[in-house]
């Protein structure tokens, strides 16, 4: 198997780099091979629609960043995301909203949350969804007020009978969590999904920075409205810098917990494995994860601000992340869009319980069309084998 797969992969990669970059730069060294551009006359500019993705999530136009509040509710997958409704640069940050029944084909249903209130004067930033008793979803999100202080707010669906939960309302009691005087109000954001303790209290985490370190501040609430900060953060680390988008979830039936943080300094997503001391309300990392310099990453490519949710429908945990194309601002403006969400992946703990494993959701296979099988293929001197009978450009619908 491996001997027939590897060369075809290499070949597909070669073609990918060739087609994808050939009209943007003359020489590409990304795969340590050099491809010249033989037919630049045929190819379009950066504004060509062929650079849009066919399989990854992206809205029709404009800027997106972090995935927000993913959830499975009454048979529908919801994906919200940081979105500028007016331009392909960061700004006017709102929550775009799309729905799907298979995590592959998405329909946009408008803005779920947009800045309308004084406490959102500088945008509606990232957050999470939680499903409260009585099957009632709530969104908990950060906003930046006119003084650029980060505060946490809630929003509820306007009409629970609308299967797509298109409209969301903000109660008068927002904001519900404001930064205490000892917290840096410029580094206080991205609340997690809530979880219920054995004492019946809800818990959420908010990312924060203190000195050069990051931490996940813990809050508790009876009703998801009134929140009290715990004496100690759930976890912290010196030296790692700001923890954005913390994510905390059980694995292996609750024998292990995962605490993930997006490190603002390096724009990379890392995690620790450990146990959750429910009496002290502390996350205790396993020995090898104590030092932040040893935290593994979810993904070693362009992948940031990720978030997971538990899919009750299929009993799996699904991971979303934001990927930017690393284009210049002027290229983003020219092409009219910026940012994609990565393919959703199932994430689970390996048998040795030392690391997380992940694989694209099985629904993705519904995009496959023509199968090409290779048997008894001998590698040529160059180590490459051409796979005939398929086109590798996704836009061609192969
Ligand atoms: C924000 O929206 C306003 C229109 O409401 C627009 O004039 C402005 O250019 C937008 N800013 C950005 C950065 O998109
Ligand atoms: C709520 O949504 C349902 C289903 O779409 C619709 O029939 C009903 O009219 C909506 N109610 C209101 C008050 O908009
Ligand atoms: C608060 O955070 C901002 C943004 O990182 C930083 O510029 C500022 O120096 C911080 N203030 C304090 C008192 O640490
Ligand atoms: C885009 O991704 C690259 C590579 O991960 C990173 O260096 C850069 O800071 C990102 N840009 C933004 C706006 O996050």
TrEMBL record:
Any single GO BP term: carbohydrate metabolic process
Residue intervals of the Glycosyl hydrolase family 32 N-terminal domain: 56-360
Lineage: Eukaryota, Viridiplantae, Streptophyta, Embryophyta, Tracheophyta
UniProt keywords, alphabetically: Glycoprotein, Glycosidase, Hydrolase, Signal
SMART domains: Glyco_32 (SM00640)
Keyword Kinase: no
Extent of the signal sequence: 1-30
InterPro entries reported in the protein's UniProt record: Fructan_Metab_Enzymes, Glyco_hydro_32, Glyco_hydro_32_AS, Glyco_hydro_32_N, Glyco_hydro_beta-prop_sf
Protein name per its UniProtKB record: Beta-fructofuranosidase, insoluble isoenzyme 4-like
UniProt key word Metal-binding: no
GO molecular function: hydrolase activity, hydrolyzing O-glycosyl compounds
Gene3D superfamilies, per the entry: Glycosyl hydrolase domain, family 43
Stated family: Belongs to the glycosyl hydrolase 32 family.
């Amino acid at each position: 198997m491996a001997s027939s797969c590897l060369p075809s992969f290499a070949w597909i990669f070669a073609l990918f780099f060739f087609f994808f970059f050939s009209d943007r730069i003359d020489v590409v060294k990304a795969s340590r091979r050099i491809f010249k551009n033989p037919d630049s006359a045929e190819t379009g500019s950066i504004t060509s629609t062929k650079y849009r993705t066919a399989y990854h999530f992206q809205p029709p136009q404009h800027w997106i960043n972090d995935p927000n509040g993913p959830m499975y509710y009454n048979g529908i997958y919801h994906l919200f995301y940081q979105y500028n409704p007016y331009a392909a640069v960061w700004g006017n940050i709102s929550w775009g909203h799309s729905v799907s029944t298979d995590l592959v084909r998405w329909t946009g249903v408008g803005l779920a949350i947009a800045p309308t209130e004084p406490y959102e004067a500088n945008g509606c930033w990232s957050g999470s969804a939680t499903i409260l008793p009585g099957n009632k979803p709530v969104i908990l999100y950060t906003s930046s007020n006119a003084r650029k202080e980060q505060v946490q707010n809630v929003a509820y669906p306007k009409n629970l009978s609308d299967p797509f939960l298109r409209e969301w309302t903000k109660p008068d009691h927002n904001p519900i969590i404001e930064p205490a005087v000892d917290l840096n109000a410029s580094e206080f954001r991205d609340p997690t999904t809530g979880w219920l303790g054995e004492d019946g209290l809800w818990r959420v985490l908010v990312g924060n920075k203190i000195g050069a370190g990051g931490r996940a501040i813990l809050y508790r609430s009876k009703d998801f409205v009134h929140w009290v900060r715990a004496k100690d953060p759930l976890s912290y680390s010196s030296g790692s810098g700001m923890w954005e988008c913390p994510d905390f979830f059980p694995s292996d039936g609750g024998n292990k917990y995962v605490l993930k943080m997006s490190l603002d300094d390096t724009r990379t997503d890392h995690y620790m494995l450990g146990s959750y001391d429910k009496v002290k309300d502390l996350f205790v990392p396993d020995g090898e994860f104590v030092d932040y310099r040893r935290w593994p990453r979810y993904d070693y490519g362009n992948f940031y601000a990720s978030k997971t949710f538990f899919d009750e429908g299929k009993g799996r945990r699904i991971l979303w992340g934001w990927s930017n194309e690393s284009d210049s601002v002027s290229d983003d403006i020219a092409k009219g869009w910026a940012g994609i969400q990565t393919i959703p992946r199932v994430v689970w703990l390996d048998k040795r319980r030392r690391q997380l494993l992940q694989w694209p959701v099985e629904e993705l296979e519904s995009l496959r069309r023509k199968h090409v099988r290779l048997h008894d293929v001998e590698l040529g001197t160059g180590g490459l084998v051409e796979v005939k009978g398929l086109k590798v450009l996704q836009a061609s619908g192969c």
